[in-house]
Amino acid sequence: MKFHERLRELRQQSQFMQKEIAEKLGISAITLRQYEQGTREPNIDKLLQLALIFNVSLDDLLCLEDFKKAHEAFADES
Question: Positive or negative, the Cα torsion across 18, 35, 10, 13?
């Protein structure tokens, strides 16, 4: 799973609408939609705010385990 997919999943599991999360972050709903579509990425401050909003670690928000697995598989091929 990638960050934008995880963000969409967390939002859909929460009681929040895109507009509400965007307001909490101080961004437009369009920008949040772009985060969820993977066409734009948040800066570190917004990532930290998102982790707090959804009560998850940055590792979880950024799908660190999936990233590790993908790179381990790539390293094994070399």
Answer: positive
